[in-house]
Structure formats: structure tokens, C-alpha cells
Amino acid sequence: MDVGGGGGYFTSEFRRRGAQAYLFEPDIRELGEKPPEGAVIADGYLLPLSDGVADVTFSSNVLEHVADPETFLSELARVTRPGGLIYVSFTNWLSPWGGHEWAPWHYFGAERARARYRRRTGRSAKHTLGENLFAVHIGTTLRQVRARDDVTVVSARSRYWPFLAETVVKAPGIRELATWNLLLILRRCPP
Ligand SMILES: C[S@@+](CC[C@H](N)C(=O)[O-])C[C@H]1O[C@@H](n2cnc3c(N)ncnc32)[C@H](O)[C@@H]1O
């Protein structure tokens, strides 16, 4: 299950590699002109799926776009079968890319960075902090997932670093700047 999959290019790639993959995306504009067949307009907080139907639940770069990441994760866990895997990655707020299209100016404040983007491009920025982009931190997220009883953490690593990907995540403080994008692989516990 590709949750918040945008135009569905991950879903298409999973299918190309033989998986039975399905796209769930709440925003019809993000689906684009040619979403994968059978794409479902659905919010990740409330997926139209029974408990435990998915072998793998996948969510790339969505967690920083939801106001309540813990509830979002609960729903991913609910639809994943016991023993199945949950892949969640997100760009944390203090990453050099944390401000998305107005990065790295978010380090000087979100409003200032948005205003700068508008001045420079003549367009309104897509993201507004507190509306469709949220300041998610690595330390807080790790504490929250480790405290859960519905999942165990298989791996917590930088998504893009080719080396020391797990090491960088172990350094409090530094990890908020250096990880860039946190990838969590979680295993669904038996109910
Ligand atoms: C940065 S895009 C990521 C798209 C794709 N997963 C990727 O990695 O390229 C963020 C996506 O999260 C989706 N999204 C935002 N809120 C969501 C929610 N509550 N449930 C599911 N998806 C959500 C957006 O509509 C958007 O498609």
C-alpha cells in the first residue's frame, strides 16, 4: 500500500517489479493526469482497508505533511498484517531541505522564508507551516515509535546517505541537521 503516493510513480515501480501495489492519495491534484490504474482517493488517517491486509505499507515523504503523525502511523500499522513491514520516510524540519521549496531559508523562520520565495519567484509557495507542512523532528519521532506497542523498529537510518546511514541517526542534536531524511522500517507486532 503506497499511502500519500502522489502521482504514483512508486506504485508503478512496485508493480513493474511484480508486487500487487495500490495507491492511496487524498489530493486529486497530486494524482496528476495518469495515475496508476485503481488509484484510490483516500486519506491516510482513515484508509478504506480492513485490518492487516497489507504485507508492506509504504509512505514516502508524507509524515511531515500531516498534522498528527502518530495517528497517521497508527493507521499504517492497523492495515499492515502482523509480521508485515511499514516503510516511512520524511524530511525532518531541521534538515537542510526541511523548508521544502523555501529551504534552506526556513532556518531563519518559516514566514520570512515564504516571503522570500514569493519575492524571488513571483509565485506563492506551495507549503505553509502549520497548514500542509509541519515541523517533525527525528528525536521526538524515534521516541514516539519506540514507545509504541503495535510496531518494533527494524531500522532507523538516513534515507539518502550511502554510508553511515544508521550511525548518523544515533547522534542526538547532530542527527537533526545531518540525517536530511529519516527512513524508518517498522515491523507490525501481533495484536
Ligand atoms: C511530498 S508528497 C510525496 C509524494 C510521494 N509519496 C513521493 O515520495 O514522491 C506528499 C504527499 O502526501 C500527501 N498527503 C498529505 N496529507 C495526507 C494524508 N493525510 N494522508 C495521505 N496522504 C497525504 C499529499 O497529498 C502528497 O501527495
List the topology elements.
Elements: E1 2-3, H1 9-16, E2 23-24, H2 28-31, E3 54-60, H3 69-79, E4 80-90, H4 110-121, H5 138-146, E5 151-158, H6 174-178, E6 182-188
Parallel strand pairs: 1-2, 3-4
Antiparallel strand pairs: 4-6, 5-6
The protein binds S-adenosylmethionine.
Structure keywords:
four-stranded mixed β-sheet; single chain; Rossmann fold; binds S-adenosylmethionine; globular; alpha/beta; two-stranded parallel ribbon; 191 residues; 6 helices
Helices and strands, in order, run as EHEHEHEHHEHE
In the sheet with the most strands, the strands line up as: 3-4-6-5
Helical content band:
25-40%
Shape: globular
Q: What's the gyration radius in Å?
A: 17 Å
In total, how many domains does the architecture comprise? 1
Give the name of the CATH architecture. 3-Layer(aba) Sandwich
- Would you tell me the overall average pLDDT? 97
Distance between the amino and carboxyl termini = 20 Å
> Considering the protein shown, what is the CATH homologous superfamily?
Vaccinia Virus protein VP39
Question: What compounds are bound to the protein?
Answer: S-adenosylmethionine
Count of DSSP strands? 6
β content, as a range? 15-25%
Spans of 5+ residues with little confidence (pLDDT < 50)?
none
Summing up helix and strand content along with how strands pair, one would put the structural category as alpha/beta
Determine the number of helices (DSSP H or I, runs of at least 4 residues): 6
* Major sheet description: 4 strands, mixed
**CATH class categorisation:** Alpha Beta
Q: Enter the CATH topology name.
A: Rossmann fold
